[in-house]
Amino acid sequence: MSHFRLTAAIAAAITAGVFLQGCSRSGSSVDAASAKAERERHQAPDFALKDADGRWVRLSDYRGKVVLLDFWATWCPPCKIEIPWFIDLERKDKDRGLAVLGVSMDDEGWDVVRPFLSQVGVNYPVVIGDDRTAESYGGIDALPTTFLIDRTGRIAAVHVGLASRKDFEDGVERLLQAPAPGSGDRASVPATTASTN
């Protein structure tokens, strides 16, 4: 995964609503996108990647849930700021239908990811990403890059770089409150497989 030897941005202080932009390949600043209207949402590409126990994890397994899909790395300072927020969200909203899923883009794989997960106490599934998965999501040029996916498997928002905790909490809450698929609002959209390993 040499494509993901991204240049780490120097960590700056968080001030009055201004947040670290992230670990970017180009070093250019990026803004978190706001939630898309339902008609503008596109299907999130499916993937099959292995977790730390060697079990296959597929995005399509989470259909019917709101998914927070986080592309991150252990060497990325902004990623380390967000992960505790995601731990809290998973703990607080799992029973309401939220699923947090981490995709590590560390070149060293489980050798560095396992100890980090244990140290931080990550309580949600994490898989090791690959070039194909990143490319299916439009190319991951900065870390963290986090997708909020609605219950029908469509991308409702994308945050590139470090967003605020409130952005994530508000986005998740809006998606959790939306009518569930098949509740008379709209039919479930079939899954699209973009990447399997």
Q: How many angstroms does the end-to-end distance come to? A: 15 Å
What fraction of the residues are assigned to beta strands by DSSP?
15-25%
The parts where pLDDT drops under 50 for at least 5 residues are 1-20, 25-33, 185-197
Task: Output the CATH class name.
Answer: Alpha Beta
Total domains: 1
CATH architecture label:
3-Layer(aba) Sandwich
CATH superfamily: Glutaredoxin
Largest sheet: 6 strands, mixed
Order of helices and strands: EEEEEHEHEHEEEH
The residue fraction in helices comes out at: 10-25%
Q: Based on helices, strands and strand pairing, what is the structural class? A: alpha+beta
Radius of gyration: 16 Å
Q: Taking strands numbered 1, 2, ... along the chain, how are they ordered across the largest sheet?
A: 2-10-9-5-6-7
Number of helices: 4
Task: Explain what the structure shows.
The protein is of the alpha+beta class. It has a single domain (2-177), classed as Glutaredoxin. The protein contains 4 helices and 10 strands. A 6-stranded mixed beta sheet has the order 2-10-9-5-6-7, with helices on one face. Strands 1-8 form a two-stranded antiparallel ribbon. The chain is globular, with a radius of gyration of 16 Å. The two termini are 15 Å apart. The model is unreliable at 1-20, 25-33 and 185-197 (pLDDT under 50).
